[in-house]
Amino acid sequence: MSVDVAPGSILVLFGPSGAGKTTVLRQIAGLDRPDAGTIRFGEHTWFDSAAGIWQPPQHRRIGLVFQEPALFPHLSVEENVRYGVRYASDRRRTRVGPLSEIATMLGVDPIEKRSARRLSGGEARRVALARALAPGPQLLLLDEPFAALDAPTRTRLRHDVRALLHRLGTRAVLVTHDRTEAMAMGDEMAVMIDGRVRQVGPIADAFSHPSDAAVAASLGVEAVLPARVTASSGGLLTVAVAQMELHVAEREPTPPGTDVYACIRAEDVTIERASHPRASARNHLPARVVAIAHEGPIDRVTLDCGFKLDALITRQSREELELAPGAEVIAAIKATSVHLVPRA
Amino acid sequence: MDWTALWLSVRLATATTAVLLALGIPLAYWIVFSPRRWKFLVEAIVAVPLVLPPTVLGFYVLIAIGPLSPVGRAYTRIAGHGLPFTFEGLLIASVLYSMPFAVQPFSAEFASVDRRLLEASWSLGVSRIATFARVVLPLSVRGLVTGIVLSFAHTLGEFGVVLMVGGNLPGVTRTVSISIYDAVQALDYRSASQTSLLLLIVSFVILASTYSLQRSVWIKPRH
After folding, report:
1. Measured in whole angstroms, how far is the alpha carbon of residue B219 from the centre of its chain?
2. Do A338 and A276 have their domain in common?
3. A4 domain-assigned
4. Which CATH number characterizes residue B95's domain?
5. A37, A232, A283, B214: least surrounded by Cβ within 10 Å?
């Protein structure tokens, strides 16, 4: 596969456990050697079985963070963070800027004398990230680095890491099987199933338009729509999606201005012929039927309501409503059926 | 008590341990990190002195360094005298004899270092050798101390190998265990019992401190 990743953006390598994500990451890092093929990064060839090229990890200028922080237990926080720095060239060091800036943005005291083994889980991950970024890598590789953390710590770290990568312009590959994490952190996504990359593309596309049934099953079937919170009142958020507005029940405090993904399952979308003024659903969107696909006794109706949205309805309902491509309908979605994932 | 013999044994044990530290660390490194399939043969050769009777080992060393072997002849040409029945000859034999007591604790400790630490270090641009020096060695202090202590203690008490290679020259090759044997032969039980008791106490103290290390009584565990 080949992916364009803009400076400062994150490619998510997504897939169920055992899909081979970590193997791919280790091969990119140069820790494992593939049997055949090529690995290229920009103009650098890291592996080419035909040409007999193999760059060891030391020559790839990468940063690597595992699920476990793997800090050097005999060294202090400062020594851990500085560990790889003296091997980086001076030119690279100036390009990256002062090490203290990276450490500070990650909330690590760069001259901390405490032993690495005395840190909490969240602190240790921050130090591991600072250590990986300090020598100014051209690519950061993250193997489920936040998996073992509690939810608030994980959310904060995701945010800090995204902001820092953006600031440094460092590209990253993030391995995860957690769809929330993929949405919160990723820009591009590659979906892996059974050792093969099945789909590559911008993250919302991959979620909203899975290339085949296996990808859809691994991602969960639902629309994932880039959106922004515009207002909040009485536990109800107003979210702008394309040119439309959705009302969404506020589950976690989400201030206006937050970029989010709005996730809507096709089962939760109801189709009406005329708006019912007293129905409980908060959202009634004018829509046009684009296509109808038969999935056994269920029909999948693809709607265009300013954005693409699928609805699953029974064949009987479809017949009663006399739905056909081109029909003008109302898509009804309950405020509690829209699930928001804030972008880190 | 035969202080000359005791002093000789201490010198021999110290020299042997120093040589084993210099040779054993690279050898243990190679055994642990080499991808070669046939490295089990090297491991077996290193471990042979554990099961071979010391007299057999001593016999082969004697032949190998004797005037009829190329090694022995080359040494004689350079040094002006042969290796058997000298301190140097004894040192070579002791190094071989105590090799497993250094190499095995070293390699066991190297192998137990979390592999992800090595991979983290490599990915940070640090070479394999530098990673070994900066990560593996500092985390292997316990194994290194154990190996040093055991090879020292083992050399201090050797008997069969010394007898075969070194003979019994006072101040040159008469080590403490041979001196005890001589004392008993001469019915000097008083001297024999004093020296024996000293060796017993030294051995016990050394082993007790080693086991306390293993149980991390003094040095903190890694994690």
Report:
1. 23
2. yes
3. no
4. 1.10.3720.10
5. A37
Is residue A198 domain-shared with residue A254, that is, in the same domain? no
Give the whole-angstrom CA distance, residue A193 versus residue A19.
5
Write out pLDDT tens, residues A103-157. 888 888 877 788 888 888 889 999 999 999 998 899 999 999 988 888 888 888 9
The tens digit of pLDDT for each residue in A247-276 reads 998 888 888 988 988 888 888 898 988 766
Does residue B120 belong to the interface with chain A, where contact is any CB pair within 8 Å? yes
**CATH at residue A133:** 3.40.50.300
Question: Which positions in chain B touch A27 (Cβ < 8 Å)?
Answer: none
What is the tally of structural domains in chain A?
2
In angstroms, the CA A302 to CA A304 distance is 7
**What SS3 state is found at B56?**
helix
Q: In this structure, are residues A239 and A262 in contact, taking their beta carbons and an 8 Å threshold?
A: yes
H-helix segments, B34-86:
39-47, 54-65, 70-79
Q: B15 — contact with chain A (CB < 8 Å)?
A: no
Q: What's the CA gap between A190 and A273, in Å, rounded? A: 39
On whether both A194 and A184 belong to a single domain, the answer is yes
A6 touches chain B (CB under 8 A): no
B123: nearest CB among A29, A68, A73: A29
Is A296 in the same domain as A284? Answer: yes
pLDDT for the residue B206: 86
Interchain contact B222–A (C-beta under 8 A): yes
ipTM over 0.90: no
Q: Which residue has the tokens 């050697």?
A: A33
| B190 phi/psi in degrees, rounded to 5 | -65, -55
Phi and psi of A54, rounded to 5°? Answer: -150, 115
> Under an 8 A CB cutoff, do B120 and A70 touch?
yes
Counted domains in chain B: 1
| Best A22, A33, A54, A58 residue to mutate vs chain B (most B CBs within 10 Å) | A58
Does the pLDDT value for residue A94 go beyond 50? Answer: no
Does the structure show a pLDDT above 50 at B223?
no
- Domain final residue pick, A204, A222, A240: A222
A118 interfaces chain B, CB cutoff of 8 Å: no
Q: Average per-residue pLDDT in chain B?
A: 90
Could you say which DSSP state residue A86 is in?
Answer: G
What is the residue type of A342?
A: P
Q: Does B129 reach chain A within 8 Å, measured CB to CB?
A: no
B125 with A84: Cβ contact below 8 A: yes
Total Cβ atoms within 10 A of residue A255:
9
For chain A, give the percent of residues with pLDDT over 70. 94
Tell me, yes or no, whether B126 lies in a domain: no
Instruction: Evaluate whether residue B40 is within a structural domain.
Output: no
Cβ neighbours of B112 in A, within 8 Å: none
Question: Would you say residue B119 lies in a domain?
Answer: no
pLDDT at position A276, please? 65
* Cβ distance of A135 and B125 shorter than 8 Å: yes
Instruction: Give the structural domain span for A315.
Output: 223-342
Structural domain span for residue B207: 3-33+53-114+140-214
Is A5 part of any domain?
Answer: no
Question: Is B147 inside any structural domain?
Answer: yes
Work out the mean pLDDT of chain A and round it to a whole number. 86
Q: Domain for residue A49, yes or no? A: yes
